[in-house]
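Lecture notes, unit on binding sites. The following record was shown on slide 14. It pairs a sequence with NDP.
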Amino acid sequence: MAKTILITGATSGFGRASAELFSHNGWKLILTGRRSDRLLELQEKLGPAAVHTAVFDVRDKKQVQEMVERLPEEFRNVDILLNNAGLALGLGPAHETDLDEWETMVDTNIKGMLYMTRLLLPGMVARRCGHIINIGSIAASWPYPGGNAYGGTKAFVQQFSRNLRADLHGTGIRVTNIEPGLAESEFSIVRFGGDKDKAAKVYEGTEPLTPVDIAEIIYWTASRPAHVNINCLEVMPVCQSWGNFVINRK
Ligand code: NDP
Ligand code: 8X3
């Protein structure tokens, strides 16, 4: 019987590429996001019968609850929850940032992931089968100027993923945190408030990771034998590495 993956943020980037790859490999899909036109277009492309779409905002606990309650019978047994929906807003220093932007990142990257996980886990535990795959970031472990609250939200994803594993000990449920570095998607367009030129400059002269690269890693993680748990996987493009510490001299 075909397995089912629920993907948050399937309208773009990593989520969309994952939808295409899992579909290609015969999975049933629950595709979610706020942009309904994109979800419908993807459903049409991937085959309406194997795709259920749900339009909602992961920041809204009630909408998440309703989505889970309204899952059609044939999509109820979710095998993989891909907590992918997320965003960075701004790249300014902490003392100049917009507090609302910080709040949006916390509400999306942390609270959205918590709502989804808490509501789908009981079914997985009852079936003693399932996999939570969270999309963290290199920003969880490696600070950079302007990473402030975004990096903080991804550090939460990192530790929450580990703690989930501890809680789920003995249930057979797997938990993975995938931590990508520079990857070209709509991420920077969103980060810079829709400024496509500024976003393009982030990738200028680089060979960044692509959404397909990340989807393939997600699929590989999910297709390991059932006794293998990839706890955490950090990935950067070859063109990216770490810089030196900086010292402010008098
Ligand atoms: P994109 O901007 O291309 O995709 C983000 C997705 O998240 C969209 O489908 C969007 O859907 C969805 N989303 C955002 N906010 C909400 C919300 N409130 N409710 C529901 N869905 C939401 O970016 P990426 O594919 O690059 O990002 C995916 C994940 O990967 C994010 O968690 C990001 O932090 C992380 N990441 C990205 C990296 C990169 O360099 N690109 C590197 C490391 C991690 P819609 O707008 O339709 O709601
Ligand atoms: C996205 C990668 O380096 O812009 O999480 O934070 S980075």
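Take-home: The chain has a mean pLDDT of 98.
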